[in-house]
Write a structure and sequence with these properties.
The chain has about 375 residues and is α/β, with parallel strands linked by helices. About 45% of the residues lie in helices and about 20% in strands.
């Protein structure tokens, strides 16, 4: 196995480690065993894309370490991140009869992690859960920080809870089986960290994005560790998003609206966030907060990554309606994350509908 990186997320009694190491999936059983006094039962939740690739390895590792393993495989895709599929996860937990001290393990991308974590937070008022993210987006973002949720017809991630995992186990070697489009969507979340708080990291990505897409091990290890560190630092400072954690939502208000208006079928989450970030950059300049060259620079790195850069056309009223349901609203206001420059972001709560109408009109 290659070099090991461990980052500790210090949240008091809810603290946990992020374990990052190539070719480490087969070692997860012993690591989970060390978290519990005696290995007993556990449930692995995966999807029908990831399970044929990696479920056998994880299951064998757990069983070798003394665990009795049950599994539940759900269909792949954001459209299944709903109450019906989530209830099937709950049904599986009921059938397994896990105790309050027996873990549920999420093996998959953001959808699997979000649904499994939310199920863990609800079953018996909370059982341990472990994140084993298999997409770049999940490895650098959604697996860290304890946000768990499912979607509702009125908006993305509208039903959920803040519930921290006991362990995040990242094996970057699984990315070799990831579709290139999914890999690019994950890069969008990496770019986000550079935009909101680390100009040097943004510059590093500009120079190394092709090596990253080629899964150069040194570059992959560096960007995953850096991103997890940024995510963890923000979460440790603001676990339940009362303030600065909202900065992680750069591009998400517009991005979630795009996902909703296209019925979660046209864009991957990272793609929608990339488009939303371009809109946030243009809005930042329109309101006098940033220089004119900000949007073009961001667009260039997205184009180099292979991410979409053309904003889909919807009416202003469709945009406003879609964003009105975004969970990041505070009262009747919508919070936008805007940019002053690369690495310098802020929360804006004084954006008017007229500002948004002007922004949307600039794309028509």
């Amino acid at each position: 196995m290659s070099d090991l990186n461990i980052y500790h997320v210090d949240l008091g009694e809810r603290s946990y480690d992020i374990h990052i190491q190539f070719e480490s999936l087969a070692s997860i059983g012993e690591a989970i065993r060390r978290l519990f006094t005696v290995p007993s039962r556990c449930l692995i939740v995966s999807n029908d894309v990831v399970a044929p690739l990696y479920l056998g390895t994880v299951r064998k590792s757990l069983e070798t370490s003394g665990w009795h393993v049950e599994t539940f495989v759900l269909p792949d895709g954001e459209k299944y991140k709903n109450t019906a599929t989530w209830m099937q996860v709950m049904d599986s937990l009921m059938a397994c009869k896990l105790s309050r001290n027996e873990p549920i393990i999420a093996l998959g991308g953001g959808v699997v992690g979000d649904m499994t974590g939310f199920a863990a937070s609800c079953y018996r008022r909370g059982i341990p859960f472990i994140q084993v993210p298999t997409t770049l987006l999940a490895q650098v973002d959604s697996s860290v920080g304890g946000k768990t949720a499912i979607n509702h017809a009125h908006g993305k991630n509208m039903i959920g809870a803040f519930y921290q995992p006991r362990l995040v186990w990242i094996d970057p070697s699984v990315l070799k089986t990831l579709e290139i489009r999914e890999l690019r969507a994950g890069v969008a979340e990496l770019i986000k960290y550079g935009l909101i708080r680390d100009v040097q990291f943004f510059s590093y990505l500009e120079k190394n994005v092709q090596q990253l897409l080629a899964l150069d091990s040194k570059v992959v290890s560096q960007v995953i560790l850096t991103s997890c560190r940024h995510k963890a630092e923000v979460v440790m400072a603001d676990e339940t998003e009362q303030g600065m954690r909202a900065l992680l939502n750069l591009g998400h208000t517009f991005g979630h609206a795009i996902e909703s208006m296209t019925h979660y079928t046209r864009y991957l989450h990272g793609e929608a966030v990339a488009l939303g970030t371009l809109m946030a950059a243009r809005l930042s300049h329109m309101l006098g907060h940033s220089a004119e060259n900000l949007e073009p620079r961001i667009k260039r790195i997205y184009e180099a990554t292979g991410l979409p850069t053309v904003i889909p056309e919807f009416t202003v009223n469709e945009w406003l309606d879609a964003m009105g349901h975004d969970k990041k609203n505070v009262g009747s206001r919508i919070r936008y994350i805007l940019l002053k420059e690369i690495g310098d972001s802020f929360i804006a709560e004084d954006i008017t509908d007229e500002n948004i109408r002007t922004l949307i009109a600039s794309y028509l």
